[in-house]
Amino acid sequence: MPMETVRLAREGEIAIATIDNPPVNALGQALRADLARAIAEAGADPTVSAIVLAAAGRAFIAGADIGEFGKPPLAPFLPDVLDAIETCRKPVVAAIQGVALGGGLEVALACHGRVASVSASFGLPEIKLGLIPGAGGTQRLPRLIGAAQAFPLMLAGEPIAASRALQLGLVDEVVDGDVVAAAVALARDLAARGAPERVCDRTGRLTAADREAFEAQALATTKGSGEMPNAMALIEAVRGVFTLPFAEALAAERALFLKLVADPRSAALRHVFFAEREIARVPGIGADVKPRPIARTAVIGAGTMGGGIAMCFANAGIPVTLIEQEQAQIDNGMNRVAAIYAMSVTRGSLTPEKRDERLALITPAVGLAAAADADIVIEAAFEEMGVKQQIFGALDGIAKSGAILASNTSYLDVPTIAAATKRPQDVLGMHFFSPANVMKLLEVVRPQGIADDVVVTAMALGRRLGKVPVVVGNGFGFVGNRMLEARTRATERLLIAGALPHEVDAALTGFGFKMGPCAMADLAGNDIGWRSRKARGKTAAVADAICEAGWFGQKTGRGYFLYPEGARSGQRDPEVEALIARISEEQGVTRRSFTTDEILSRLLDPMVNEGARILEEGIAARPGDIDVIWLSGYNWPAWRGGPMYWADTVGLRTLVARLEQQAAETGDATLQPAPLLRRLADESKGFADLKARSA
Ligand code: T1G
């Protein structure tokens, strides 16, 4: 049976095995089997003196096939394939172009020589999947470059460039040309030198000084390893290079790896890996739809959001005109932008040259006419419909034909804004999150009737700005804020029923969030929610009372918590706790205590329920999109996979039962399980069983 994923060819006495398993040569079962076969065949061929391992496509090998994890493992297993390469009696040389990641780098490490193209990059990113290298990376990399060089690389999981790999001794040569030809030359050379040297036999770099340096790194890591077990497993595995014979250390690494593969935290991170890639596929829009060119941009409104959005463009090297109505306003806006850049220079995260470069890309202007030549105009003005319609109506007469008009509104109706123009097909929402120059999430709001290439352009631009763009439908609060509203209402209910702000926040930070709902409200400013509730005729007894007292949060030194002398973390406030108790009494509620799990259920179940409604209404195309929104916009802990993934781990029947109980207890009809949630639970299914639908 012919090999599907590896092609064998000859260059004289050199056999060239070319891996070809699109899109990124992931080491799935078929490739592992073909690789083992190619090495065996070439190894046994008396006319072959050496083997070159090359790859077709944009990646050398992007690692193990992540999609296979969690499924019954299929032979041949990667460690065995790598053992066949390393113990081959003929030298095997890797010709590396593109990325060599995870198992891909481990393949290269099992070879007897490595030649890289200048654009190649190398990394062991397993840590990001809640794993450690599982096919010799923790043993062979330290033997090649030293444990104190190897450990930080594996702990960070970030790729390094070919030039750095050469410096470290990870590769033998870097070429700016035909990497296969260079690998053939090295293979010939190694064949002439006799039996190939194996990386597993190298111990020269594993000195006492290297051990000492590694142990210092391990100690520092132990102190800060947090929730994830894999950092500790990595230390244990790497320490094996000093304490165990190679074969035993390899077996120990594998055992640690397989344990982590079975860990639900890794399963969640693997879900996130694929969900983050799935968002690029917009249902109903073909891959043939091309984005419109974006060379010049404009931002209307130089407030906190407008300034931050302008910085996103400048940071991506895209010229932007920042527009205000009056000179004083644009001066303030530019001063704020300059101050943020100055802070980055002070912190050393930006050079003065880069600062100047970016500031030079932001052109301040007064009057909408300055947006005339922009390919896209993003409006970030005051959140009031009349203001938006006035701006879009004027822009309609100014912006060039084919320009995209986007609103950064966080909850207003986009079609109503678009109706102020004669080009609604070119008007959409691009909802950035504060601070816009920092937060990754970008909700691309796709109203009915929008042109496909406008959506595709906004998505491509989002990626160009280094954002995580997710297409959402038009509706109040779109996806993220709509679910946040459900959690905010739950917080209010919990406080009146008997919980205290620090207890509510502790439950969520214990779950993995960096900040609880009360501290988050205090950071954002309680007056923002207050104004929005008042504008919609809504009330929240506790939150309103805190605002009526003028306690807007950190900016007033007091909110749900006290912030003495500008402290960034809040302290319990007996006055707030007394105010809450008074409101319970006024509402005739007998306060009671709640366990952490009860608090979590009351905070998160309503969010998931709202998520189910959002999917029913098509405001989100996939549950995974909702998960990515909460990870990149609201600090949902990645190792929990996101709200919809988490719901499946709890079990939808359990969630339905809990929500029914909460609805009965509170009389709040919004807690009645959404039809989709109830249906999936009845069918013993999860959100993961849902197919994508057009947002
Ligand atoms: N397994 C399965 N599919 C993969 C994959 C992988 N390792 N890498 C990429 N894909 C798919 C991806 O889902 C997408 O599919 C398509 O390829 C293009 O990817 C034993 C345990 C390589 C830098 O963590 O970082 O080895 O959406 O959209 O932006 O020790 O993909 O088109 O259907 O991301 O150009 C370690 C993961 C695995 C690297 C390319 N490796 N991949 O980025 O394209 S664990 C990784 C990436 C391991 C061993 C261990 C990136 C990329 P689709 P893409 P890209």
Structure notes:
By secondary structure, this protein is of the alpha/beta class. The model has no long low-confidence stretch (mean pLDDT 96). The chain has 28 helices and 18 strands. The strands form three sheets. An eight-stranded mixed β-sheet has the order 13-12-11-14-15-16-17-18, sandwiched between helices. A six-stranded mixed β-sheet has the order 1-2-3-5-7-10, sandwiched between helices. It has a four-stranded mixed β-sheet with strand order 4-6-8-9. Residues 23-24, 26, 59, 62-67, 78, 99, 101-103, 106, 125-126, 129, 131, 133-135, 137, 274, 277 line the site of (2S,3S)-3-hydroxy-2-methylbutanoyl-COA.
Please specify the SSE layout and strand pairing.
Blueprint: E1 6-11, E2 14-19, H1 29-44, E3 50-55, E4 59-61, H2 78-86, E5 92-96, E6 99-101, H3 103-110, E7 113-117, E8 121-123, H4 137-145, H5 147-156, E9 160-161, H6 162-168, E10 173-175, H7 179-192, H8 208-224, H9 230-243, H10 246-261, H11 264-278, E11 297-300, H12 304-315, E12 320-324, H13 327-347, H14 352-360, E13 362-366, E14 376-379, H15 385-398, E15 404-407, H16 414-418, E16 427-432, E17 441-446, H17 452-464, E18 468-473, H18 480-497, H19 501-511, H20 517-524, H21 526-535, H22 541-548, H23 574-586, H24 596-616, H25 623-633, H26 643-650, H27 652-666, H28 675-682
Parallel strand pairs: 2-3, 3-5, 4-6, 5-7, 6-8, 7-10, 11-12, 11-14, 12-13, 14-15, 15-16, 17-18
Antiparallel strand pairs: 1-2, 8-9, 16-17
Helix pairs in contact: 1-2, 2-3, 3-4, 4-5, 4-9, 5-8, 5-9, 8-9, 9-10, 11-25, 12-13, 18-24, 19-24, 22-23, 24-27, 27-28
The protein binds (2S,3S)-3-hydroxy-2-methylbutanoyl-COA.
Residues 23-24, 26, 59, 62-67, 78, 99, 101-103, 106, 125-126, 129, 131, 133-135, 137, 274, 277 line the site of (2S,3S)-3-hydroxy-2-methylbutanoyl-COA.
